[in-house]
Design goal:
Mean pLDDT of chain A: 94
Shape of chain A: globular
Number of helices of chain A: 2
Structural class of chain A: alpha+beta
Helix content of chain A: 10-25%
Largest sheet of chain A: 6 strands, antiparallel
Low-confidence stretches of chain A: none
Radius of gyration of chain A: 14 Å
Number of strands of chain A: 6
Oligomer: homodimer
CATH topology of chain A: S-adenosylmethionine decarboxylase
């Protein structure tokens, strides 16, 4: 891994989320924006898509990488993947999202890539 | 990891890429579209941002998750992160991207999440 940039790659599952909230695209996008702001990151753009009959997916493109969210309402679970070159621990953003959605955070992977 | 959905989470570095090509946003977006098509995945939307004086970042939002690309032209390296619920091995997409950009693929992480 011979790159000098330091990237924190983080994957988490938010389980037992509030089913109504996790179907609310506007709410999820708002939570993403707040998480980005809280982490002192810079939002460039965000895109989302609502599936029928349920589920959604959203990505926030950041100056310091990205956050991606894919929901599984039938399981009350949200898959969140974040890559960040920011100085703050990306776990804070996932903890915030879990709180907002009344879920529990399970960290699947937390890896620092590069930074040599 | 008590989710039934099966997600392949893949992180790769494309090193020694062609510096001119990796600054070409249209080219990178085209390569992403071709990779998605090749993998039988469904592109919902893509967003990108060109940094000044160099570097770019792009995300393809898929019906089956996403592909994110962050370039580090000063190092000739591209960070690629892909999450896929598709049936084909996501590594194929990264190998294709490395070929198109004349780089070498180094897999940093390849993990199956869920699918229980």
């Amino acid at each position: 891994m011979n790159i000098m940039a330091r990237i924190q790659a983080l994957i988490g599952l938010l389980t037992h989320c509030n089913e109504e909230k996790m179907e609310d695209v506007m709410l999820i996008e708002g939570i993403l924006r707040k998480a980005v702001k809280m982490m002192d990151l810079t939002l460039l753009e965000s895109v989302s898509h609502k599936f029928s009959p349920q589920g959604m997916t959203a990505v926030a493109l950041l100056a310091e990488s990205h956050i991606a969210v894919h929901t599984y309402p039938e399981e009350g679970t949200i898959f969140v993947e974040m890559a960040s070159c920011g100085s703050r621990d990306a776990k804070m953003a996932l903890e915030f999202m879990a709180d907002m959605l009344e879920g529990k955070l399970e960290i699947v992977m937390d890896k620092i890539i590069g930074g040599a």
